[in-house]
């Protein structure tokens, strides 16, 4: 490993270690010392690269948000019609709920911080704005807002449920929200 300030990856390792530690042990167990140990950097690197824990957490969660936005992009880019967009949203819910437990925990840790601190709420607002922009490529703004909340809720419920619902039910929920006037009576 490079020493001193010649290690160009040190800052990135600190951010990655911060997210890993939060995901594994929770935000309450995060400290400069524990992060430095996890990142295999001298403790002094923490204050050299970050003005404090607040700056480090903001940057780490900012990276996490970039990752989740990229997941949205993977599922929603290049779709030509609304039926395929509905399918893509259902796929997205299932990818998020069946995917990384790390992502699920980091999401909840960020939401908890945002619920307690208005300054972290700005990060969640940024995340929602990015998500909605992706959804608005396929749906009107009000529908995109509803879908964003649906994605969050269904993802959490599927991830934590002992018997998660299947994709058909997810697609039905997405279709109900994205169809003007709701489902047609039979």
As a percent range, the share of strand residues is: under 5%
Radius of gyration from the alpha-carbon trace, in angstroms: 19 Å
Major β-sheet, in short?
none
- Please report the number of helical segments: 9
Estimated structural class: mainly alpha
CATH architecture name of the largest domain: Orthogonal Bundle
Helix share bin:
over 70%
Q: List the helices and strands in order.
A: HHHHHHHHH
Please name the CATH topology of the largest domain. Answer: Tetracycline Repressor, domain 2
Q: End-to-end span in angstroms?
A: 67 Å
Domains, number: 2
Overall CATH class of the largest domain: Mainly Alpha
Mean pLDDT: 91
Describe the global form: elongated
- CATH homologous group name of the largest domain: Tetracycline Repressor, domain 2
What does this structure look like?
This protein is mainly α and 186 residues long. It folds into two domains: 1-50, Arc Repressor Mutant, subunit A, CATH 1.10.10.60; 61-186, Tetracycline Repressor, domain 2. 74% of the residues lie in helices and 0% in strands. The chain has nine helices and no strands. The protein has helices spanning 10-25, 32-39, 44-49, 53-76, 82-98, 101-116, 118-136, 141-160, 167-178. Helix 1 crosses helix 2 (32-39), helix 1 packs across helix 4 (53-76) and helix 8 (141-160) packs antiparallel against helix 9. Residues 182-186 have low confidence and may be disordered. Residues 31-50 bind DNA. It comes from Streptomyces tagetis. Pfam families: TetR_C_31, TetR_N. One of its GO terms (molecular function) is DNA binding. Residues 8-68 form the HTH tetR-type domain.
């Amino acid at each position: 490993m490079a020493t001193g300030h010649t290690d160009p990856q040190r800052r990135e390792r600190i951010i990655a270690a911060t997210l890993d530690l939060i995901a594994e042990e929770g935000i309450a167990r995060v400290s400069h010392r524990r992060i430095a140990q996890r990142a295999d950097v001298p403790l002094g690197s923490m204050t050299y690269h970050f003005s404090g824990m607040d700056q480090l957490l903001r940057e780490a969660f900012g990276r996490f948000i970039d990752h989740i936005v990229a997941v949205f992009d993977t599922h929603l880019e290049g779709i030509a019609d609304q039926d395929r967009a509905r399918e893509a949203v259902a796929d997205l819910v299932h990818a998020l709920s069946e995917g990384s437990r790390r992502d699920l925990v980091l999401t909840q840790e960020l939401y908890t911080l945002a619920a307690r601190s208005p300054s972290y709420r700005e990060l969640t607002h940024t995340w929602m704005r990015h998500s909605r922009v992706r959804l608005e490529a396929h749906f009107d703004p009000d529908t995109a807002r509803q879908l964003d909340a649906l994605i969050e809720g269904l993802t959490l419920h599927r991830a934590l449920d002992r018997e998660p619902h299947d994709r058909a039910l997810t697609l039905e929920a997405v279709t109900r929200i994205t169809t003007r006037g709701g489902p047609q009576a039979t």
